[in-house]
Amino acid sequence: MIVDFSIAPVGKGExxxxxxxxxxxxVDASGLSFExxxxxxxxxGDWDEVMALxxxxxxxxxxxxxxxxxxxxxDDRLGVTDGIRRKVASVEAKRRH
Amino acid sequence: MIVDFSIAPVGKGExxxxxxxxxxxxVDASGLSFExxxxxxxxxGDWDEVMALxxxxxxxxxxxxxxxxxxxxxDDRLGVTDGIRRKVASVEAKRRH
Amino acid sequence: MIVDFSIAPVGKGExxxxxxxxxxxxVDASGLSFExxxxxxxxxGDWDEVMALxxxxxxxxxxxxxxxxxxxxxDDRLGVTDGIRRKVASVEAKRRH
Amino acid sequence: MIVDFSIAPVGKGExxxxxxxxxxxxVDASGLSFExxxxxxxxxGDWDEVMALxxxxxxxxxxxxxxxxxxxxxDDRLGVTDGIRRKVASVEAKRRH
Lengths: 97, 97, 97, 97
Hints:
The structure is a homotetramer. By secondary structure, the first copy, chain A, is of the alpha+beta class.
């Protein structure tokens, strides 16, 4: 499955990038496929792998903020792996015809 | 924490309510506090409780559809319980003044 | 269409309810059907009506905060009105059988 | 502002990429800055520009499907332009130190 994941502390100032650095390090260290974009990070893996990573990110953020906002949008498709690359390629292929 | 949770099969017809009945039964049976609304269900509990329920709903849906779309928006606030009732009451109290 | 709408200032403290009071007054005054829930507000109307209201809420919030986070989830179904009430009733009816 | 935008027909089969081709053409033709990712498209511009584009995409999709699901997550920050590029760069810069 692919999860579009976004996390932010609530009430810790307008600039959020400092608090995201450690979260991104956890994503890097997870070994899962991921794609950062301007509004979040797409992570690919099975349910337990991805959710363990999301929980670790949340635990890290709650060490710094008393309130955390998390957003997850999940596309869970049986039998599909390598989905991050395939999704973009699928649309691109159709546009060329 | 409170999670606004929505789940839908992809590609199974326009009417989604039939596939939601079993999901709602799992929510009922969980013993967690919840609030259904027109676009989803708010569920309150600690991380592991809520996520175990969400995973069970997803597993049930994947028995009926090969592709499932899930949306989660999480408000995780240290030390807050009874949050579903409190959030609505907090705004209502301010509006009366 | 029905829109699940949530808005929050970024970096203005942990408690968000004070900043929401004026937004809720705009929703009330719009004349559109709505349903508050613990994580947002469902608003029903046609595209231009609902989006004009959302923009007015955003403009009001930007008078108080330099950065605003908005979340919208839209269920747009041709020929369906009275959707907020119908959606809940549809699932409830199936559960009774 | 930056909007993370995702649109899908409801009940039109598991593969969504065919229906997205025309939507992506509208995004291309808009002249706005955008970034496709595996779960959606980030679009940058002022409120009226971005929302006019989103409405055009929805109108196109409703020509093909009777029910459409749209998701928008908005980061609206006064005085910030070139935000798609800046957000990624901001986190990357902090990670190098």
